[in-house]
């Protein structure tokens, strides 16, 4: 495998908006080159997580090596990376692009350029890629290839005179895509005689082989039995197996310059393998590491607690295993008076949060409660200290607060002109600032600055509903700004419930506090005494609901006789209720927590 000349290798990724046909195109390329037999072939063959197949989305970038006998009589080795399209997994895309020299830009010929098409193509341009435009779904009656080509030229500035027109579903013109890859994408550069340098693109845990590392070799070779060193932490390991994905794991003698493949070295924990690290030879190490890619920074945090307190250790192990093959997921332990022991977890976005929760319940059979998602605030104290606030429950007392900075994002929304009014109204309602509004044909491209905490709850759902599903949305972080923010505490029977506290802008605090109080009133079961539910900012109550007491008829056994006897019994009941309210603990059922936290705050 190592004798493939660099001129015959092509490393490329497929980039596109969600649902424009990346994984289906990958299937056709695998089929066309005969990497899998007809019996082994299935739809979305690279989406190997059950949850990916069910939702029809790609979450993890996947790699496959194909061999293609081209029309020029040479046999090329193609390393394909299928990448996710959703904004939460842009980190996976950046890692894939760092390992390739070229990209296929897939655009749906009926939908045209969408928000993530732009975001991903700009990432590819930044990575110095050669880009081949591919128009997919041209067999659909609604396809307008000429209009979409013009749109790609107007919006992105790519020449589309030789764009490849295909249908990934029917397999139309897949040969044209393969020819474009070998003719128009550049071969990798590398020096076989230089010191070994390989970029660690991804790593995941396998129960039999230990940690499997996905690498892209830049210089030198990786061979079985070689001692390799991780440049970031100095850890040394002996290679047990090297190989390629074809798409099954296929062991080879070695991996040479320009090649992509996997390495196993009996590594026990994935914590030893930092994504973006450089692997080098232990005896003859490289002096400079390869430029990696910037580490992912979580933007949304929430608490995950086991419903059954005995599952805490199981949850710890499960999170550790998920962290093994998702470097962008962060977690740390925390405790809550209401929910016991759990973990504060950091995610790249709400879909990422939802996927992790679902994987925990499916793959590890865990029942979990998630607290309300919150973003990372920068809290400045009066003594000049600054700290990052991940959990609203840790908010310091107002007397020592100087100011709070909140994260802002720059959002790009692409939508048909007809829905512009409701979308502008939604962005303004969420404290947005309009940056620009441009038109490409009948489609509007809207750029807005928005506070991230207004987006994390239900912005995406609301956007889809006001635009009837036609708007596409992409965002990038855009720094921090001072905000008039307050912490809203929820008190049940005068006891603060830290798991329900959240941050909000002062102008919306009352509305949100009232919403959650009304919701809890319906969710908490009645007791034998009245239960006040309050939302408060500091010591000031801004909203209140009361759950009425269950009444027991203590006078039922009194028939006839003196009224004072009945009054005596009622007074006694009143005293009892007063005492109960003083000492009674209100147990909030888990189901009420879950329902309250799901609220569209």
Automatic annotation (TrEMBL):
Binding site for GTP: 19-24, 136-139
Enzyme class: hydrolase
Recorded topology in the membrane: Peripheral membrane protein
GO MF assignments: hydrolase activity; translation elongation factor activity
EC number: 3.6.5.n1
Residue ranges of domain Tr-type G in the record: 7-189
The keyword S-adenosyl-L-methionine is assigned to this record: no
Catalysed reaction, written as an equation: GTP + H2O = GDP + phosphate + H(+)
Keyword Secreted: no
Domain of life of the native organism: Bacteria
Compartments reported by the entry: Cell membrane
UniProt function note: Required for accurate and efficient protein synthesis under certain stress conditions. May act as a fidelity factor of the translation reaction, by catalyzing a one-codon backward translocation of tRNAs on improperly translocated ribosomes. Back-translocation proceeds from a post-translocation (POST) complex to a pre-translocation (PRE) complex, thus giving elongation factor G a second chance to translocate the tRNAs correctly. Binds to ribosomes in a GTP-dependent manner.
Family, similarity comment: Belongs to the TRAFAC class translation factor GTPase superfamily. Classic translation factor GTPase family. LepA subfamily.
Protein name: Elongation factor 4
Organism: Roseomonas alba
């Amino acid at each position: 495998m190592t004798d493939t000349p660099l001129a015959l290798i092509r490393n490329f990724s497929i980039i596109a908006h969600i649902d424009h046909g990346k994984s289906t195109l990958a299937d056709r390329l695998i089929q066309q080159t005969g990497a899998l037999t007809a019996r082994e072939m299935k739809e979305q063959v690279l989406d190997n997580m059950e949850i990916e197949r069910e939702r029809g989305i790609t979450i993890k970038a996947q790699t496959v090596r194909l061999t293609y006998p081209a029309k020029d009589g040479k046999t090329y080795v193609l390393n394909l990376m299928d990448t996710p399209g959703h904004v939460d997994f842009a980190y996976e895309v950046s890692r894939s692009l760092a390992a390739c020299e070229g990209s296929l830009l897939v655009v749906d010929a009926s939908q045209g350029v969408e928000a993530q098409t732009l975001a991903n193509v700009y990432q590819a341009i930044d990575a110095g890629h050669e880009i081949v435009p591919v128009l997919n779904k041209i067999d659909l009656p609604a396809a307008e290839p000429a209009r979409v080509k013009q749109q790609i030229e107007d919006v992105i500035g790519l020449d589309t005179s030789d764009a490849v027109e295909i249908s990934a579903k029917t397999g139309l013109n897949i040969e044209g895509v393969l020819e474009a890859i070998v003719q128009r994408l550049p071969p990798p550069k590398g020096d076989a005689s230089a010191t070994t340098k390989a970029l660690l693109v991804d790593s995941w845990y396998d129960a039999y082989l230990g940690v499997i590392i996905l690498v892209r070799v830049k210089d030198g070779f990786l061979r079985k039995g070689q001692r390799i060193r991780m440049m970031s932490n100095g850890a040394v390991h002996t290679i047990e197996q090297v190989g390629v994905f074809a798409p099954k794991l296929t062991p080879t003698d070695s991996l040479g310059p320009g090649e992509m493949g996997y390495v196993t070295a009996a590594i026990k924990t994935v914590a030893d393998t930092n994504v973006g690290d450089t692997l080098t030879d232990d005896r003859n190490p490289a002096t400079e590491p390869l430029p990696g890619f910037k580490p992912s920074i979580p933007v949304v945090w929430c608490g995950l607690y086991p419903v059954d307190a005995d599952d805490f250790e199981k949850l710890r192990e499960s999170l550790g295993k998920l962290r093994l093959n998702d470097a962008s997921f962060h977690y740390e332990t925390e405790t809550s008076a209401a929910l016991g022991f759990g973990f504060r977890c950091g995610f790249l976005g709400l879909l990422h949060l939802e996927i992790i929760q679902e994987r925990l319940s499916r793959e590890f059979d865990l029942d979990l409660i998630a607290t309300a998602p919150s973003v990372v605030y920068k809290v400045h104290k009066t003594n000049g200290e600054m700290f990052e606030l991940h959990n609203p429950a840790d908010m310091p007392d107002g007397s020592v607060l100087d100011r709070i900075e909140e994260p802002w994002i720059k959002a790009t929304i692409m939508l048909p002109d007809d829905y512009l009014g409701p979308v502008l109204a939604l962005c303004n309602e969420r404290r947005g600032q309009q940056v620009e509004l441009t038109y490409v044909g009948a489609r509007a491209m809207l750029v807005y600055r928005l506070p991230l905490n207004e987006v994390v709850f239900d912005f995406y759902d609301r956007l889809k509903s006001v635009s009837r599903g036609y708007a596409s949305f992409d965002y990038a972080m855009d720094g921090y700004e001072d905000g008039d923010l307050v912490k809203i505490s929820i008190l049940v029977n005068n006891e603060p419930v830290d798991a329900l506290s959240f941050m909000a802008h002062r102008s919306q605090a009352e509305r949100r506090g009232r919403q959650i109080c009304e919701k809890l009133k319906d969710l908490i079961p009645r007791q034998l005494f009245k239960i006040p539910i309050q939302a408060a900012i500091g010591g000031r109550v801004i909203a209140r609901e009361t759950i009425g007491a269950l009444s027991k008829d203590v006078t039922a056994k009194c028939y006839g006789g003196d009224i004072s006897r009945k009054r005596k019994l009622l007074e006694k009941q009143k005293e009892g209720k007063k005492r109960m309210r003083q000492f009674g603990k209100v147990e909030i059922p888990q189901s009420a927590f879950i329902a309250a936290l799901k609220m569209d705050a």
